[in-house]
Design brief:
- The protein has 256 residues and is of the alpha+beta class.
- The protein has seven helices and twelve strands.
- The strands form four sheets. It has a five-stranded mixed β-sheet with strand order 8-7-6-10-11. A three-stranded antiparallel β-sheet has the order 3-12-9.
- The longest helix has 12 residues.
- The N and C termini lie far apart (58 Å).
- Belongs to the peroxiredoxin family. Prx5 subfamily.
- Its EC number is 1.11.1.25.
- Monomer.
């Protein structure tokens, strides 16, 4: 792996390109979550050699499932919700997070390969920032009619397995997903709160550039930079890369 001054690298479809060293260290912004990782762990694995057609077909299937988060207006208020947590049986609402300066809402599920790719790092990032004052909640809105593996029982098992430090809530009616404008998993909504003002959306972008079908390491860089900015009172760029994942599995329409 090649790392430039400050640990900056770029990844292209043809490999890794070293950035020219900046004149000042201040020119590179590295999220505090990323700086806690050892560079020895940020290894760029070479593209696996695909010697057969089945492997290629598997890659194409992942690409076909890709859905990008859509434009939700920055500055919009966090919708109210009242949802159960399968692991504990507790019901959570937006008001439970009113005392926090920032709230991260993540739409996840159990089965999606894009979510599986990040599960351990979602827990690590959340643990890191929850200690700094961030509130975090995850929601699964997938239909159990089409994807029973995303149901409450398995959500509770997932929360235990990955030691999620945040409540993992079940949106059975899918109304909350619609209220937020969520369309994929994973999808991230970062809200900030100034005093008694309602939570306002400041970031609706990706976790980082890593995907199940590429060799980019998971760092959480994009989301971490946004959280760092919110917690430090700094502005967040309005140009944000959309999150990419599986589409939310909506309930089948009932025939009349």
């Amino acid at each position: 792996m090649a790392v430039a001054a400050g640990g900056a690298v770029t990844v292209t479809t043809t490999g890794v390109r070293l950035l020219s060293a900046p004149r000042t260290l201040a020119a590179i912004r590295t999220p505090s979550f990323v700086t806690t990782l050892s560079y020895s762990k940020l290894v760029f694995f070479p593209e696996r050699i695909r010697n057969n057609e089945p492997a290629r077909k598997k890659l194409l299937v992942i690409r076909a499932a890709r859905t990008e988060s859509q434009g939700v207006s920055l500055g919009s208020r966090a919708p109210n919700f009242q949802l159960p947590e399968p692991l504990t049986g507790k019901t959570w609402t937006l008001e439970d997070f009113e005392s926090y300066p920032a709230l991260l809402v993540m739409f996840l599920c159990n089965h999606c390969p894009f979510v599986k790719h990040l599960k351990k790092d979602l827990a690590k990032l959340s643990n890191f920032y929850m200690k700094k004052g961030l509130a975090v909640v995850a929601i699964s809105s997938n239909s159990v009619a089409t994807h029973p593996q995303d149901g409450p029982k398995f959500m509770a098992e997932d929360a235990k397995l990955y030691n999620y430090p945040f409540p993992y809530l079940y949106d059975e009616t899918q109304d909350v997903a619609r209220d937020f404008g969520a369309v994929c998993t994973p999808e991230f909504f970062l809200f900030k709160k100034d005093g008694r003002r309602p939570f306002e959306l400041v970031y609706h972008g990706q976790f980082d550039d890593s995907r199940p079908s590429n060799s980019v390491p998971v760092t959480g860089r994009d989301l971490s930079l946004a959280i760092d900015s919110v917690l430090s009172g700094q502005p967040i760029p309005s140009v944000q890369k959309p999150s990419v994942g599986c589409s939310i599995k909506w309930h089948p329409q009932k025939s009349s």
